[in-house]
Amino acid sequence: MLKYQTIPVTPFQQNCSLVWDSETKQAAVIDPGGDLETLLGEARRLGLKLEQIWLTHAHIDHAGGTAELAEQLQLPVIGPHAADQFWIDALAQQGAMFGFPEARPFRPTRWLQDGETVELAGHVLHVRHCPGHTPGHVVFHSPEMKRAFVGDVLFAGSIGRTDFPQGDHDTLIASITQRLWPMGDDTVFIPGHGPESTFGRERRSNPYVANT
């Protein structure tokens, strides 16, 4: 069985998630934006063996700790979509702009495309390319858990910002309605910030995407 735990990290309180197989304790970390000692301490407490890094997108609060963690534990970096390479290249500048610790650029071990999958201890999660917040943003969907790790595409009661370079509001709305809603109203999503919600609840009440 797959399990997960969400840990807010960085001054932006970004929801980093540990995902693991309950029997083997093999684990992936989604969006290690920073506070690596906190993340590693929690992984040790849970008895997890970190094997992969999965990235939804390359903004500093989601990807800032990636290079250091990958180097420290010799982990592959999987995702996001290649359209976010310019954000990865700008991690040092992003960090300086927002007062984050030094962040190094990197090149993912594997870029992700829409419709691909990632695997952890035999469990398969589906990848959807959901641009709009960033051009290379991806989402990880586990039909097994009825969970989706959506980064900054959608929030409880809100949606991702689109005023960053290569952001686009109409593209984001299309990503939500065409790629997220088909996952099912009862799917719980873990956003990049703030509390969890369900796609059904957001379809009914989120002012940005209600009745879409």
Automatic annotation (TrEMBL):
Any Pfam family hit: Lactamase_B
Spans annotated as Disordered: 193-212
Necessary cofactors: Zn(2+)
Record's keyword terms, sorted: Hydrolase, Metal-binding, Zinc
Domain (Metallo-beta-lactamase): residue spans on this chain: 13-193
Entry keyword annotation includes Zinc: yes
Gene Ontology molecular function terms on file: hydrolase activity; metal ion binding
Protein's name according to its UniProt entry: MBL fold metallo-hydrolase
